[in-house]
Amino acid sequence: MAQSIADRIELIRGDITQLSVDAIVNAANSSLLGGGGVDGAIHRAAGPELLAECKTLGGCATGSAKITAGYNLPARFVIHAVGPVYHDGQSGEPEKLADCYQSALALASNHGCTSIAFPAISCGIYGYPMADAAKIAIHEVLNYLEANPQSEANSPITRVVFVLFDDRGLQTYRQVFKQTLNERRVNLT
Question: Long-range contact list for 68-72, CB < 8 A, 24+ apart?
């Protein structure tokens, strides 16, 4: 029996480098060569082989993603998604952030992943407001799950985990998730 779409999404506070999922998403910079925050933590946990592979990828454009092995991580893959730096919300940031989620989900699906974990892309040093970013992230994941229903013949991503660094971020994502589900139910009737 297939799960409801909402049941395929988890919101947790934790360390994304510790999750046993097929792919974790790295909030990467365009060089893909490591940095601070989630990016630095993933590179440290994966080991030097991750940096060596990233050096062969030629960077990544904002709004896009590239995939590597997970090396010393519990995850099989790391999907490096380059989110936008937030300026004013009117300079293409929402579209670029949506593109990050779409690219990451497509890469995961194309590599046979059934589970994926996302951090709050662009919400750290890139300054994207958490609630605005959460709306985009949840919207894109729900769109993907609706377009790819779970069935025995089709094994797309069946589990999506949003991993937040702190309680404030988790609370924001929970509020946005609940609000988004309520809005979608109203729009579907």
Answer: 70/23, 70/24, 70/46, 71/46, 71/47, 72/45, 72/46, 72/47
